[in-house]
Amino acid sequence: MEFNNSKPIYLQIIDEVKKQLIRGELKIGDKIISQREYAQKMKVNPNTVQRAYREMEIMNLVETLRGQGTFICNRPEMLEEIKEEMAEKIMRSFLMEMKSIGYSDEKTINLIKQWQIKINEEGLK
Hints:
By secondary structure, the protein is mostly helical. The chain folds into two domains: about 10-70, Winged helix-like DNA-binding domain superfamily/Winged helix DNA-binding domain (Arc Repressor Mutant, subunit A); about 80-120, no CATH class.
């Protein structure tokens, strides 16, 4: 994972865990890597990882069991919530950027349709 300078690292860690859940790389109930291991593996400050894990606990994404580790919470509705939240962020950012470069709503929608056709023709989904 490569970190982006425009966003705090702890938020990028949280987003990566969410993406791993959506992609099925992590599943409900799975134990995730310890904070210390994560910090060493990603070469980041342990306090940054600790903050990410603490935030994920507040979000009910993970739970830490003393002496056992940190686990993905058992909330079946969580995956759909995460997908919707991430899609909203992406769409909000995209639409704001399109407006900032002068695209009207209609022109943006037409551009999306054109790209969707192009992507489907290329076989990328």
